[in-house]
Amino acid sequence: MDETTTTAALPPVRHWPALDLFGVEFDPVLAELMREGPVTRIKLPNGDGWAWLVTRYDDVRAVTNDPRFSRKLVVENDVTRLAPHFIPVDGAVGFEDPPDHTRLRRAVAPAFTTRGVERLRERARRMLDELVEEVLADGPPADFTERLLGPFPLAVVCELMGVPSIDRPRMHEWTNLILSSAHGVERSQRAKEDMCAYFADLLSQPRDGDGDDDESVVGLLGTAVANGEITASEAVGLALLIQIGGEAVTNNCGNMLFVLLTHPEHMARLRAEPDVRPRAIDELLRYIPHRSAVGLSRIALEDVTVAGVRIRAGEPVYVSYLAANRDPHVFPAPESLDFDRSPNPHVAFGYGPHFCVGAMLARMESELLVDAFLDRFPGLRFAVPVEEVRFRRGALIRGPESLPVTW
Ligand code: HEM
C-alpha cells in the first residue's frame, strides 16, 4: 500500500471542542464519534496533530491492558489533548509503564486494599457525621458542594495521606490550582512545586512508628524510600497524584446527587430499599459522564491492529471509558439508569494497570455520602429551579459548582 492509499483509507480527523455541558448530558460529539466507528481520529483543543480514539468496550479493555501502548512516551510528545497545561511530575504513576509503574503502585497498595479502606471507614463516617450535624444545626437551605461534597473527600484523603487537618485548606487550594489553568500555567506550576515541597518535608520528618502512622500513604512511602524500593522524588510525585485524585469524589458524588434529585422515583426506591444502594452506586458510576472529552493518551510502541484498524508505532491513542460504559453490546439500553442492571462490569475507574488507585476508597466515600443524603435529609430537594444549578466550566472533571438544596 503506498502512502496515498493509506491516507485515503484513514477516517477523517474530527475536531472535538471543549464543551461546557449541563448536568450529566452525554457529550454529543462523543456520541457522534461512537456512531462513526469503533476507531476514529480526533483533534482536541490543545497540543499537536491528531490521535486515534477507541470507544467500544472490548477494544477499550484491550488497549488499556496491552503493554504495546505506552504512557511513558506521552511525556515526551505534545499529543493533542484537552488540557491547556500539562504538568507531569517525576514518579507520577499516570505516566509510567511497567515494571516501574508496578513498583510505584506496590509501595502504596496496602492503603488502598479492602482492609486499608475499611480501616478508614469508621473515621470517615465520624468526619461526615460532624459535617452533617453542622449543616442540620444551621438549617436549610444549604450548598451541599460547599458544606459536604467539598470538605468530606478532602478530609478523608488527608486522613489517608497522613496530612494534619490544619493543612487541609492549602491542600485544597493547591489541588484546584494544579487541576485548572484558569489562573495561568505559571500559577499551576507554582502550586505543584509548593505541594511537592510540602510532601518532601512531611516525608523527611521522623515517623513516630505507631501503627496508624505507618499505614498512612506518607508512612508507606517513607518506608518504601527507606527500603530502597522507590526514590524520594518518586515518593513525592506519588503523594501529589494521590492527594489530587482524592478530590475527584467531590465532583462524582455531586453528579450522583444531581442525578438522584432529578430522578425522584429512583431516590424514593433507595430510601425504601437500602439493600439496592451498593448496586445503585455502580450504576451511577457507569451512567455519569465523569469527565470532559478524554484523559491521558497512550502511544503505540509498535504497529498494532485494533478493531481492524492499523495503528502505527509512534501514534497516540485515546480510549473513552465514558463511551465503553454506554456500549449496548455490554449494557443493554445503555442510556437508561437501571438500578437492577446485573452484571454491571463498568469501567468508570479505568481498566488495566492504570486502573484507579482510589477506586475502593471512592466507593466507600460514595456509600457514606449517599446514605447521608437519603437518611439524614428526608425531603431533600433543589432550593433553586434545576436549570439554575451551575456546573463547572472549562473543567477536565465534570461536576456541579454548587448544589443549593433544601429539606
Ligand atoms: C469517583 C471517583 C473517581 C473516579 C471516577 C476515578 C476515575 C479514574 C480513572 C478513569 C483513572 C484513569 C485510568 C487510566 O489512566 O486509564 C484514574 C486513575 C487514578 N486515580 Fe482515580 N477516580 C476516582 C477517585 C480517585 C481517588 C479518591 C483517588 C485517590 C485517593 C484517585 C487516584 C487516582 C490515581 C493516583 C490514578 C492514576 C493511576 C495510575 O495511572 O496507575 N482516584 N481514576
Give the SSE map.
Blueprint: H1 3-9, E1 13-15, H2 28-36, E2 39-43, E3 51-54, H3 57-64, E4 69-70, H4 100-112, H5 114-138, E5 142-143, H6 144-149, H7 151-161, H8 168-179, H9 185-204, H10 211-214, H11 217-226, H12 232-245, H13 248-262, H14 264-272, H15 277-287, E6 298-300, E7 304-306, E8 309-311, E9 316-319, H16 321-324, H17 359-376, E10 381-382, E11 404-406
Parallel strand pairs: 1-2, 3-9
Antiparallel strand pairs: 2-3, 4-6, 5-11, 6-9, 7-8, 10-11
This protein binds protoporphyrin IX containing FE.
Residues 64, 93-94, 105, 157, 241-242, 245-246, 248-249, 252, 290, 295-296, 321, 348-350, 354, 356-358, 361-362 line the site of protoporphyrin IX containing FE.
Tell me about this structure.
This protein has one domain: Cytochrome P450 (Cytochrome p450). It starts with a helix and ends with a strand. Residues 1-8 have low confidence and may be disordered. Helix 8 crosses helix 9 (185-204), helix 9 packs across helix 12 and helix 13 crosses helix 17. Strands 1-2-3-9-6-4 form a six-stranded mixed sheet, sandwiched between helices. A three-stranded antiparallel sheet has the order 5-11-10. A two-stranded antiparallel sheet has the order 7-8. It has helices at 3-9, 28-36, 57-64, 100-112, 114-138, 144-149, 151-161, 168-179, 185-204, 211-214, 217-226, 232-245, 248-262, 264-272, 277-287, 321-324, 359-376; strands at residues 13-15, 39-43, 51-54, 69-70, 142-143, 298-300, 304-306, 309-311, 316-319, 381-382, 404-406. The protein contains 17 helices and eleven strands. It binds protoporphyrin IX containing FE.
